[in-house]
């Protein structure tokens, strides 16, 4: 455990994934709102205005989603909370199918138990 950096030892919240989803959702909403505003001539919104509305939407989405995400445990922790509470060590292996095929026999020899968790990786 001493070799593993502190930030990788335990993930407590869903802050970053929520913030990224909020930025995407807020930006898309802002873009649509800006394009609708351009289509209404009396509003006088230009393309620069669309960019500004998109940026404000992305900022608002990031802020609100990050606040909500900071209150939620991360998805891995939610699924395996009982195992963690029981004092077991949880090791998450994020690898390709080929790498899993190579690692699985070695992990089984070490006395581990596989607990499936199918979730898209944050890095892809």
What does this structure look like?
By secondary structure, this protein is mostly helical. Helix content is 62%, strand content 0%. It contains 6 helices and no strands. Helix 2 runs antiparallel to helix 3 (47-71). It is elongated and about 70 Å long. The two termini are 27 Å apart. The model has no long low-confidence stretch (mean pLDDT 81).
Helix proportion: 55-70%
Given helix and strand content, the structural type is: mainly alpha
Number of DSSP strand runs: 0
- Alpha-carbon distance between the termini? 27 Å
* Main sheet summary: none
Mean of pLDDT: 81
- Low-pLDDT windows of residues: none
The sequence of SSEs as H and E is HHHHHH
Query: What percentage of amino acids are in beta strands?
Result: under 5%
Integer-rounded radius of gyration: 21 Å
**So how many helices?**
6
Spatial shape: elongated
